[in-house]
Predict the structure.
Amino acid sequence: MAFVSVARLQDIPESSGLRVKIDEIGIGLYRIGDQIHAMEDACPHAGFPLSQGEFENCVIVCKAHGWPFDVRTGFAPNHSDGFPIPCFAVELRGDDVLVNIEERVNDPRRKRAASSAL
Ligand code: FES
């Protein structure tokens, strides 16, 4: 699968996410300045759609129980250990927002496990 058109740029709000679906997978789209970020839209705590939370300073806060995630990395702010939420490649073609869910932009492996294997 290649990049898929999922939204228009003007549909993505500044203070929350926009939930879209690709192949039944929920994806949250977030606007940071001129850039759009795409992150799987399921909280790792209990699966709540993160895009319904409050979005500020690159961080979405889950509406269910308050866990925060940086939409650029998929990690909790100031953490880079554990399993991040999958983040995907985004392309803008004019006002068209395209996402490729086969192209992850963050590392799916545990950082600590990777460094301890060295
Ligand atoms: S479901 Fe997101 S913090 Fe509990």
Summary: The beta strands are 4-8, 18-22, 25-32, 35-40, 54-56, 59-61, 68-70, 87-93, 96-104.
